[in-house]
Design a protein that fits this description.
Largest sheet: 2 strands, antiparallel
Strand content: under 5%
Distance between the termini: 85 Å
Structural class: mainly alpha
Radius of gyration: 28 Å
Order of helices and strands: HHHHHHEEHHHHH
Number of helices: 11
Number of strands: 2
Length: 363
C-alpha cells in the first residue's frame, strides 16, 4: 500500500516551484532517497511477491473451502501482491533520478493499482474484523453475513469501491517533461492545489478513519468476549478463538505500519491550509512522509509471516497443500519409471508363455 504520490518529492518540487513555500525545500536533504529507496523497494518486492504468492497458493490449492475470514485475507494478499508488483517500476524510476522510461500507460496503471491497494487492504481487514465480531459476539444470529457467498460479494464491492476512489489518479497522472529538472517524470498534475487537499482528506477519512472506527468497535467487543470466562463454555466461541488471535495480530500490525503515514498526510493537509507559518514543520514532515511510507511498505511482507507464526489453521493447510504436491510429484516420477505403454505390457505378457513353451520343448 502507498500514499497518493510515491514520488511526492518530485511532485512537491514541480507543483510548488512558483510558490513561496518552495523556499522551505532543501534539495540536498532528499539525496539519500536515490541511495536507499531503490534497493529497499527491490527487497520488499522480492520478499512480498514470494510470501503473498505462497499465501494465495495455499488458499487456492487446498481441497477444503475457504472460510469467510480466509476469503478476506486471501483478497488482502492479492492486493499486497499487486502492490509489490509495482515497486520495481518505482525503484528504477527513483534510481534514474525521477526519469520515467515506461510510457504514459504504465505511469497511470502502476499508480492506479497502488492507489487501489491503499483503500482495498484496510477494507478487507475491516470485513475480517466484522466477521470475527459476528463469530464471537453475535454467535446466535450470524445469519447470511458469514456465508462464503456473501464474503465474495463483499470483496467484489470493495474492489469496485477502491477502483472508484482511485479514478482521480487515473485522470491526473501524466508523463511530462520537466524543463527545470531536465527529466521526463510521471507526476500528478491536478487542475488546482485544492485537489491535493481533497485527496488527503478522502485518504485520511475513507482510507483510514472510517474503517478504523469499525475495526476498533469490533475489536473491543471481541476482546471483551475473549476475556469473559463465562463465554468459554460455548463450543463455538472456543472454536473461533484461534482464528481471532490471527486476525487481531494482523490488525495491530497494519495499524502500526500505516498510522505514521496517515499522520504525515494529515500534517500535510494542515500545511496546505497554512497552519504552520514556519518552514520547520514542512521540511521535517516531508522526510517523515518518506520514512512512514517505508514502514507502510513492510506491511505487505509482515502479514504472510503472521499467517505462519500465529495461524495454526493456515499452517496446517500449507502443510497439506505442499506435502500433497511433493507426494504427487514423487508418485508421478515413480510411475514414469515403469512401462505403461499398452504394447509394451502386451509384449511383456506374451514373452512369458513363449518362455514356458520353450522350456516344455526342452524337457
Amino acid at each position: 500500500m502507498m500514499g497518493e504520490d510515491p514520488n511526492s518529492t518530485m511532485t512537491m518540487f514541480i507543483d510548488n516551484k512558483a510558490s513561496p513555500k518552495n523556499e522551505c525545500i532543501d534539495l540536498g536533504q532528499f539525496q539519500w532517497l536515490f541511495t536507499y529507496q531503490p534497493p529497499y523497494m527491490w527487497f520488499i518486492f522480492v520478499l512480498g511477491f514470494i510470501e503473498n504468492f505462497f499465501v494465495i497458493s495455499v488458499f487456492v490449492l487446498h481441497k477444503s473451502r475457504c472460510t469467510v475470514a480466509e476469503i478476506y485475507l486471501g483478497n488482502m494478499a492479492a492486493a499486497d501482491l499487486i502492490f509489490v508488483s509495482g515497486l520495481p517500476f518505482w525503484a528504477i524510476y527513483i534510481a534514474n533520478h525521477f526519469y520515467w522510461p515506461f510510457g504514459a500507460f504504465m505511469c497511470v496503471a502502476v499508480n492506479s493499482l497502488i492507489q487501489i491497494n491503499l483503500y482495498s487492504s484496510i477494507y478487507f481487514l475491516m470485513m475480517v474484523s466484522v466477521d470475527r465480531y459476528l463469530a464471537l459476539v453475535k454467535t446466535m444470529s450470524v445469519g447470511r453475513l458469514r456465508r462464503p457467498w456473501w464474503a465474495k460479494v463483499s470483496c467484489a464491492i470493495i474492489w469496485m469501491f477502491s477502483f472508484v476512489l482511485s479514478m482521480p489518479t487515473m485522470v491526473f497522472r501524466k508523463v511530462m517533461f520537466i524543463e527545470n529538472f531536465n527529466t521526463t517524470a510521471c507526476i500528478t498534475k491536478p487542475p488546482s492545489a485544492d485537489w491535493f487537499i481533497a485527496t488527503n482528506i478522502i485518504m485520511n477519512v475513507l482510507g483510514f478513519l472510517v474503517p478504523l472506527v469499525v475495526i476498533a468497535f469490533c475489536t473491543f467487543q471481541i476482546i471483551c468476549v475473549l476475556r469473559n470466562n463465562t463465554m468459554q463454555k460455548f463450543k463455538d466461541v472456543n472454536k473461533e478463538k484461534k482464528a481471532t488471535w490471527l486476525v487481531l495480530s494482523v490488525l495491530l500490525v497494519f495499524i502500526v505500519c500505516w498510522l505514521p503515514f496517515h499522520i504525515s498526510t494529515f500534517i500535510d493537509t494542515l500545511e496546505l491550509f497554512g497552519a504552520f507559518p514556519t518552514c520547520v514543520v514542512r521540511s521535517v514532515n516531508h522526510i517523515f512522509n518518506q520514512i512512514s511510507s517505508y514502514i507502510g511498505f513492510s506491511n505487505s511482507c509482515i502479514n504472510p509471516v503472521l499467517y505462519i507464526m500465529v495461524g495454526n489453521h493456515f499452517r496446517q493447510k500449507a502443510v497439506d497443500v505442499y506435502c500433497g504436491l511433493l507426494r504427487k510429484g514423487g508418485y508421478e516420477r515413480r510411475k514414469s519409471s515403469f512401462p505403461t505403454d499398452e504394447s509394451t505390457v502386451n509384449s511383456t505378457q506374451t514373452s512369458f508363455p513363449m518362455g514356458l513353451n520353450k522350456k516344455k520343448s526342452i524337457a
